[in-house]
Amino acid sequence: MGSGISLGRVWNVPIKLHASWFLIVGLITWSLASGYFPAAYPNINPLLYWALGAVTALLFAASVLLHELGHVALALRERIPVRGVTLFIFGGVAQITEEPKSAGAEFRVAIAGPLVSLALAGLFGLLYMLDRAVPFLAAPSEYLMRINFMLAAFNMIPGFPLDGGRVLRAAIWKFTGSLPKATRVASISGQIVAFGFIAFGVLTIMNGNLFNGLWLAFIGWFLQNAAISAYHHSALEHSLAGVTVSQVMKRDFGQVTPLTPLKQIVDEGVLAGGQRSFLVVEDGQPRGLVTLENIASVPQRLWPFTTARQVMTPLERVEGLTPYMELMAALQKLELANQAAMPVLYGSQLVGMLSRDDVLRYLRIRTQLGV
Ligand SMILES: [Zn+2]
């Protein structure tokens, strides 16, 4: 969900639209304009059906966004970093990269979204009750009341990583004191829910309703994937607990001078030396960092004529890690900065480099040794 159209930031958290979002807003507009509004308001200008449909679909999208911002607000209050919010075909995801510190924090972050949806359902319900007589307000309000209520109900299904699954995980965590155990149970319940959706979808297709059936099966398939990947993420976090950057970082990173041509770095350092990031050193002082991304940003035919200085990221702008930082936190920092590697600084002294590959290699070795 990394790609998408940027909508700006809320509380400094980037908000994005995934391309599939247009499909769902289009589908909702179409279904409202062709079925719901003609039934609610017979015999009016058909253009009005489309206008009402589009406005209602956008308000639905805004409701989904507010649901996600509910999670974001509580996550930020618990000091859990949020990478961004993306709206896509099944609604929204708030990318909360770190596990909450406690069962209570997990519960509060998880319940915030459905509570926002319930509040919105109440608000639109109130609007509907107050203005049942006002033309063109009652039917959209009623629709938005129902759909926000459904959003709260759907998300409270107790399958991880749905909100309900997170609430379940928080409860098991609180009860057993073990986050890995809680994650395992919540993830299994997530997979059961996902298979339920798929089975129900297949039954619906066999009953002749192809579109609804495919849709249900599609949601199930998505939930299945999400349950498994959320479980892996959580397991990773558990297995890296207590490991620090200094245990995994590379101490022998490549060094180049500011005037070394990229061609030479690639030939000698990358291809022959197997290194992926290079420290640019001038008069014994580190000046910057050259990574494969920096090199790849220059067309290959210019490599002989481009120097390390021209493509390096100056050290002041390079975010660094510290040797005693937890490896999982370092990995998240790499992910957040979208960088393959980061220098490890002890005070102002460079003591090593940590790349995502180093972490993967470390995990592979541990898996092979079974430790
Ligand atoms: Zn939610």
Brief overview:
By secondary structure, this protein is an alpha+beta fold. It is 60% helix and 15% strand.
Average pLDDT for all residues: 82
- Main sheet: which strands, in order across? 1-2-3-4
**What percent of the residues sit in helical stretches (DSSP H or I)?**
55-70%
Unreliable runs: none
Task: Explain the overall architecture.
It is built from 13 helices and 10 strands. With 371 residues, it is an alpha+beta fold. Strand 9 and strand 10 form a beta hairpin. Helix 2 runs antiparallel to helix 3, helix 3 runs antiparallel to helix 5 and helix 6 packs antiparallel against helix 7. The two termini are 33 Å apart. The structure holds zinc ion. Zinc ion binds next to helix 2. The site of zinc ion has 5 residues, from helix 2.
What's the layout of helices and strands?
Elements lengths: L4 E6 L2 E5 L1 H22 L5 H32 L4 E7 L2 E6 L6 H28 L7 H18 L7 H14 L2 H28 L3 H30 L5 H4 L5 E3 L5 H11 L4 E6 L2 E7 H5 L11 H4 L1 E2 L12 H11 L3 E6 L2 E7 H14 L2
Parallel strand pairs: 2-3, 5-6
Antiparallel strand pairs: 1-2, 3-4, 6-7, 7-8, 9-10
The structure holds zinc ion.
Keywords:
four-stranded mixed β-sheet; alpha+beta; 371 residues; CBS-domain; 3 domains; binds zinc ion
